[in-house]
């Protein structure tokens, strides 16, 4: 009986030693260290000031273009023209040339005004009076015109005009050529001359001059 008790004590002691060794190994092993990274400070965003897409521009009568106020809330921008007889502008910044001249278009944002200088060049016809011979051609054009131009002759029997502004003399006389662009009209007076008649008139003038010269010489001879 005593021998069995001793054996039990020995087993218990061995098991206890084993558990102690396991616990010792667990606590003696290096513990993993968790490293926490600190995020770098975020730089404050750079706020760009509002700026017009253009500070000056040239548009023609009837032509449209658009201005932008960059770095601004578009719905909070108020657009205006200092002279709508020259250039108009809508609430979205679209501008339209109306008449020749120079005007400032402005945008108001957060109580500040931004301006753009707009120039509208003058539209003019290349000639306001032209003389051509019967059967000959001459061309007219509108300078600084935008879009389609229509041409018309007041008397097609005297001279005709094509869709591109080319005029053809038909018979002697006068006619008015009208060019219409953006509902504005421009005119040129065409004088058609007969080349043969012009030559005859020149010959007649030479004959008259010659006769005068002969008469002058005859008078000098008589006086001598």
TrEMBL record:
Gene3D superfamilies in UniProt: 2.60.40.1080
One Pfam family matching this protein: Big_2
Domain of life from the UniProt record: Bacteria
Matching SUPFAM superfamilies: Invasin/intimin cell-adhesion fragments
Domain called BIG2: residue spans: 46-117, 119-191
Secretion signal span: none
Name of this protein: Bacterial Ig-like domain (Group 2)
Source organism per UniProt: Blautia obeum
